[in-house]
Every structure is written in structure tokens, then in C-alpha cells.
TrEMBL record:
Homodimer. InterPro entries: MecA_C_sf, Neg-reg_MecA. Pfam families: MecA. This is Adapter protein MecA 1/2. Belongs to the MecA family. Gene3D superfamilies: 3.30.70.1950.
Amino acid sequence: MKLERLTNNKIKIFLTFDDLFDRGITIEDIKANSLKVHKLFQEMVEEACEEMNFKMSGSIAVEIFSLQAQGLIIVVSKDEEDSLTEEDEYLDLEVRIGEHPYILYMFADIEAVIQLAYCIKHMDVCITLYEFEGQYYFLIEKVSKESYDTIISLAAEYGYVSTLTIYRLKEYGNCIIPENAHLILTKYFSK
């Protein structure tokens, strides 16, 4: 579980699917919105809030975003206007679940990116190459169900799952190759 404070009233929790499986939760459990999942999320949010010194009282919104083959991002935010006394404390969770139809991997150097490009050059996917804060990112989109597991396995050999949001990457990152990055890299760089 990785934690990041976004603002005074908002924190981000990143959970890999391994973290969820270790806690006995599957994606199907989350989509079913069961009491077991609510209790687990409440425990995780309380644990994260305690670690981040984030006072959890009043109206709390919990947004859950599924990142394909990577895990979940949970954004916890509280209402700024909640000024409650100790006696009036309560917890009101609002849970929303969304999915992101992309895969985002991070690489320490361009050599790893080129090696992965050679492994997937014959696959029909849309890949954009970004650079952000000294790291390289492959944004992989339009992956067929047949190629999905293969691409995830290969990307994991050369890079790491990124918890960076696509919006931040597009806003602050440098787009090096806007489309077909794997084909362009294999055309200009030898193995």
C-alpha cells in the first residue's frame, strides 16, 4: 500500500492486486459492493489516515479507480466545511468505483523501454512514450483481450507499475513519441 497526500483534505492510496488478495478481496467482491468490502475499505482508510495524520470525521468521499492489471487507486477526501466537535463526530462514506482502460508502466532508463518495444513490436496496441521527472513512461491503450496478459507480463519484466495518474503525466510530462512508440523505437534503435 502506497500513500500520498494530495491536499490538506485529500489523500491517495494505491493498492496492488496482491495487496487486495492478501486481505482476501477480489475485484468481483469490490464490484459486488459487499459489507465485507466496506469494512475492509474503512479499515484501510482509517489506517492510511492515521499514517498521514488525516483526521477522518464528517463527510468522507472515497473514490476507487481500477487500473487494469495494476491495482486500485483510492482517493479519500473530506469536506472542508466540516467543523465538528468531538461529540458530533461521525463518518459518512460515499464510495464510487471507476475503471481506467489503459496500462501505465514506468522505466528507469530508455534501454529498458527499447527492449520492451522489441518484445511487443508485433502486437496491435497504441503506445505513447512520455518522460517525467527523469523516468520514462509507456502509456499502453487499446489492448485486445488476447494480448492483455502477455503485454502486462512483458512490461513487468522491464519496468514497474506506475501510480501516476494519466492526467498528471499528460499535463506535466513530456510526450516524446505520441503514437506507435514501440514501432518507432524499434525502427531507429538496434537491439
